[in-house]
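Take a look at the protein record below and flag anything odd:
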Amino acid sequence: MEYIFRKATLNDLPQIWVILQNAIQRRKEDGSNQWQDGYPNPQIVEKDIEQDAGFVLADGDSIAGYCAILINDEPAYAEIKGKWLTDDNFVVFHRVAISEDHLRKGLSGKMLNYIEDFARNNNINSVKADTNFDNGAMKHVFEKAGYVYCGEVFFRGSSRLAYEKLLT
């Protein structure tokens, strides 16, 4: 299949929200408390899109995945229990979710490749991200893609695992 990674539009919002709702449910079924507090929600995604930070992995008219990508825009990363690999400019991504119809096809890894391309295209050599302690699937994606565990950051009252990858 030929996937296209592009900026999300408000027209994509209904499909994105279904993907996120399913991901929220999967996290719950996995026994995770990640995304069980009303976040993410349609307002967050709408804000991502309006700020040109929302991106989709599209398969024709169908949305296969969603994420938000920001440059140097994660205040919680200023304080880490641990140490980042660099203090340089960085790309950060959040809200990675894959459609139920596209699970187990390696699309999270493919999306990370597009995010890394986005960083390179913006002359940035660092990508940072975080995930919940109990999100084994995302931890596996990070490790497989060469991300290095750097410590813990804190969001909305809870600790999260922080990762960084240096691009060459």
